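Subject line: Sequence and fold of a protein, written as structure tokens
Area: Proteins and the way their chains fold up in space.
Start of record: The labelled sequence and token lines come straight after this line.
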Amino acid sequence: MSQNKSILPPNATQLQKDLEAASTGRLSLLNVDALRYLNNPEHCQIEFLPWLAWAMSVDVWDSNWPEDTQRSVVRESIQIHQRKGTVGGLKRTLGSFITGRIRVTEWFEYGGEPYTFRVYATYKNTGMSVEDVELIYSAIMQTKNLRSHLEFFLPEIETEDTVPRYGVALGHLETTTIYPREDNV
């Protein structure tokens, strides 16, 4: 037992003293600072973020997200769970990993069937893959209240380009392809 003070009682056996001496050297190699920040999404090492997300009950996770998005999702987890089942909770969930505008309208705002809602997500100058749409849909289903039904989800892309774009809308779990308008109609 070199420079470390023993925590064993004075009547410790020789075996206990030998075990303490053997383990003290290895314990001093631990990086205590890394352990100190394991529960802090801002300072946690990137390789430990998926486990922190699991510990914080993050509902939607994609390991391909950039680091700042992963940290944002973990940071917002507690506030999301406090508001789960509300429009605010849904917006906060989607806002934690979508950069853009999110609009949620409920049935009484547009005259729809009772307990239905629509979600519009606007991206600026970025596209989205089918996996992105599935991830957003999964987040909506896990965050919405149980009585409400998603009537319509529309991912919108805002761009300043003059080139025609194609889009896809998801309504009642059916995929609808939208083609550019033909001028001769």
